[in-house]
Specification:
The protein is of the alpha+beta class. About 20% of the residues lie in helices and about 35% in strands. Among the domains are: about 150 residues; about 180 residues, Golgi alpha-mannosidase II (Immunoglobulin-like, Sandwich), CATH 2.60.40.1180.
């Protein structure tokens, strides 16, 4: 009898445990995936070992023909190795399968219209992404927490893992928490969540371009700077002829004209070490009689930050910086025992150092940078030399102090010392090197291509021009804001470039978020006869006032990062050569004025052309909405569009379009201050009860400031109130249309803080 009772108890316990497994909340673990089931709330949380939460508050639903969702309840669970099944009871009996392997969590159901809905973490560290297969001739960038109808992936910056949801998934920003995205995933056959690990090294392919055993390890962009620099460089103005007087007058002009618009850095390029008596600390006395420390202080006193080009892999042989003479084993010689000039320096007095000798670091590099940074006030370093030291070392390493060292490792050792000496507050820019990735984690930014020039086409094949600039910008955009801030080389807008070409250049650099370092004559240029090269003489032209305005409307850089995580129509190499340029560059924005797009519509041809833009296919905007379109450079409202725009675009020109969704309230379309609409506007609020649109703007003192608004047909401007320091003048122009009014309001006054209110009256 006792055994019978025991057997009955065991049987009942077994039945209970089976029922518990099938019916209660639980956890499913397999191949790095974890699914937490909350039967009480009929929700799931999907986690992955490397990523943490991938989707939370997930529900199982079906979508009807009208697009409405019905969530399913009364779940029962069954688990087996590598698979979990959920059977729903109400309002429909549907079976859902979750199949886990290391690279994918398959999610399928027996209902053709089955959908998994939930919320996905998507903050600064996990960003929307597109992959190479989605290339539609449009390049996507992001400013703020954005989304689009044709973005199906998230990239986790910390782990280098791409999270791919099924094509046709919907990822939209959560209205209550912008750091989350509402997701709707179709659960058709073959659907699921796919992970691509080692995305940049393996999928993008950085690892396969290495020339030695060194392999770069993906590193997310350092957090020292939240955006690329905005500055001026002497190189494409003065080349090797720059002197103290040039730098003083340019600094004065920059402080007066562009510093109020966000320009920060003034960088002297290679020139100051000309001659045997000059080195990185003792500058050429004829050109810089008061030396570098004096010049840096002059720049700092003007409220700007001094920068310098310097090839740290070389030093003056006869007069080095930190001693009367260096030991012979401080220098790297070739197999014949000869010294070799360091790349790109003013002359051959600067020769290659041997950094396999640790004393070169201790007795030369560290004390030199201590002087430059801590005594002189260096704020920005362009670490020049193109990485050619590595090539030279590989060919002549038998002559080195320690020939067992790998060239890339030694190269990075030098960078690590420079990085430490520069500190977190000072910007370190790499020069283009042999391998993309050699400077990850150390550089704040890096050059990504060759030298450019203030002309559209090169004078000879493979020569310099602004096409080089575009190749670098578009070809390396996939790194920008992800691994470092990409530097496509210096921006130039002066003649012989046309005004339309200048607009194309200024628009592109502004919407890319890449380094905005200009090299135009802001002060009066020197006589042309200072230069020997006919090409250089051709571009010795002061920047015309109307082109200075282009700089003022596009500076400073914004914290923009790429969405398209692939080299645009080229290989992942140091000097990218895209097969073609994008027909559209689309910046998706989430800022004070709302969520909107700023799109550059290009004409790369040599003839005027009509170009089209599809709001839905090209930009991934909602096909069920209408959109307001503003032509920024022309200051004109183009109208309300549902899908396709067709516009005339001049030769080598651009139409910069600001595109907002049409709403039943006033919309701030743009401001005169910045193309992206994000520099001046601090707050925008609509009070429906009072019919008041109000906001705060930071403006440039003395520069009239315009707001461009659109109001629906039932609203008309009643009055505008504005307060600035002192008297504030307001001008209003309204242009009524069939679907509403385009309104320009201009403010003038003293100070740089503007508080404004626009009172509307309702019309029947």
């Amino acid at each position: 009898m006792k055994n019978t009772r025991q057997n009955i108890f065991i049987l009942m316990l077994t039945v209970f445990m089976i029922g518990l497994s099938a019916c209660s909340s639980g956890t499913f673990n397999s191949n790095g995936w974890q699914i937490l089931v909350n039967k009480k709330n009929n929700t799931l949380t999907i986690k992955q070992n490397d990523l943490g939460v991938v989707v939370q508050d997930a529900k199982l639903a079906v979508r009807d023909e009208a697009g409405s969702f019905t969530c399913l309840t009364e779940w029962t669970l069954q688990k087996q190795p590598g698979k979990m099944t959920i059977q729903t009871g109400q309002p429909k009996q549907i079976s859902w399968s979750f199949i886990a392997d290391s690279g994918k969590l398959g999610i399928q159901c027996t209902e053709v219209n089955g959908v998994l809905t939930g919320v996905a973490p998507a903050s600064e560290s996990r960003i929307p992404a597109r992959v190479k297969s989605q290339d539609n001739g449009v390049m996507y960038n992001a400013l703020g927490f954005v989304s689009a109808g044709n973005i199906y992936s998230l990239f986790d910056r910390e782990t280098d893992i791409l999270i791919r949801f099924p094509e046709g998934s919907e990822l939209t920003r959560n209205e209550e928490n912008a750091r989350m995205m509402d997701v709707k995933l179709p659960t058709r056959a073959g659907a699921g969540i796919t992970l691509i690990k080692e995305y940049y090294n393996e999928e993008v392919g950085l690892a396969k371009y290495q020339k030695t055993k060194f392999t770069p390890v993906y590193k997310p962009i350092p957090k020292r700077f939240d955006r690329a620099p905005t500055g001026w460089s002497s190189w494409y103005c003065y080349y090797m002829t720059a002197n103290e007087a040039d730098m003083v007058k340019e600094t004065d002009a920059l402080a007066r004209t562009l510093k109020p618009y966000g320009l920060e850095y003034v960088q002297l390029d290679a020139c100051y070490t000309r001659g045997e008596e000059a080195n990185y600390l003792d500058w050429n006395k004829e050109a810089f009689p008061r030396g570098g420390k004096w010049l840096f202080k002059y720049i700092l006193d003007k409220g700007l930050k001094p920068g310098l080009w310097l090839n740290a892999y070389g030093a003056n042989y006869k007069k080095p910086a930190m001693a009367d003479k260096y030991p012979e084993n401080f220098f790297l010689r070739n197999k014949n025992g000869n010294l070799s000039g360091a790349c790109c320096t003013a002359d051959k007095t600067v020769v290659r150092l041997d950094y396999t000798n640790p004393d070169v670091m201790k007795k030369h590099l560290m004390p030199m940078f201590d002087t430059l940074v801590n005594s002189w006030g260096l704020k920005y370093l362009k670490a020049g030399g193109w990485g050619t030291w590595m090539d030279y070392y590989e060919k002549n390493k038998s002559q080195a102090y320690d020939s067992t060292r790998d060239s890339r490792t030694v190269y990075r050792d030098v960078l690590m010392v420079i990085r430490e000496m520069m500190g977190d507050d000072n910007y370190l820019l790499g020069c283009a090197m042999h391998e993309v990735g050699c400077g990850f984690g150390l550089f704040d930014g890096s050059r990504t291509g060759g030298d450019d020039l203030a002309q559209w086409y090169p004078s000879k094949e493979s020569g310099m021009s602004m096409l080089t600039f575009f190749k670098s910008l578009f070809g390396a955009n996939y790194l920008n804001g992800i691994c470092w801030w990409s530097d496509p080389d210096d921006v130039q807008l002066r003649p012989p470039l046309t005004m339309e070409e200048a607009k194309t250049i200024a628009t592109t650099i502004s919407l890319s978020g890449q380094a905005y370092v200009i090299s135009d004559f802001i002060a009066d240029p020197p006589p042309k006869d200072r230069f020997q090269s006919p090409i250089h003489k051709k571009i010795v032209t002061k920047l015309p006032p109307e082109r200075l305005k282009l700089y003022k409307a596009t500076m400073p850089t914004r914290p923009i990062h790429t969405i398209d995580l692939y080299p645009y129509r080229c290989e992942a190499v140091v000097r990218p050569q895209p097969a073609s340029f994008p027909r559209i560059l689309d910046l998706k924005v989430n800022a004070a004025a709302g969520m909107y797009d700023v799109a550059a519509l290009y004409n790369w041809s040599d003839e005027p052309a009509k170009k089209s833009l599809s709001l839905t296919q090209d930009l991934g905007l909602d096909p069920d909405m209408k959109y307001l379109t503003f032509d920024y450079w022309n200051g004109s409202f183009l109208g309300v569009y549902e899908d396709t725009l067709s516009l005339d675009v001049p030769v080598h020109g651009v139409r910069a379009l600001v595109i907002h969704p049409l709403q039943n309230k006033p919309v701030v379309l743009a401001t005169s201050r910045h193309l992206t609409g994000t520099v001046s506007l601090q707050e925008v609020t609509w009070d429906e009860t009072l019919s008041v649109l109000s906001g705060k703007s930071v403006v440039v003192e003395g520069d009239p400031y315009s707001l461009y608004l659109f109001a629906p047909t039932n609203l008309k401007v009643d009055n505008v109130n504005a307060s600035m320091k002192g008297k504030t003048e307001v001008g209003i122009k309204a242009q009524p249309g069939a679907q509403g009014s385009f309104i320009r309001i201009q403010f003038s006054g003293e100070g740089n803080e503007l508080v404004w209110k626009v009172k509307f009256k309702k019309q029947s």
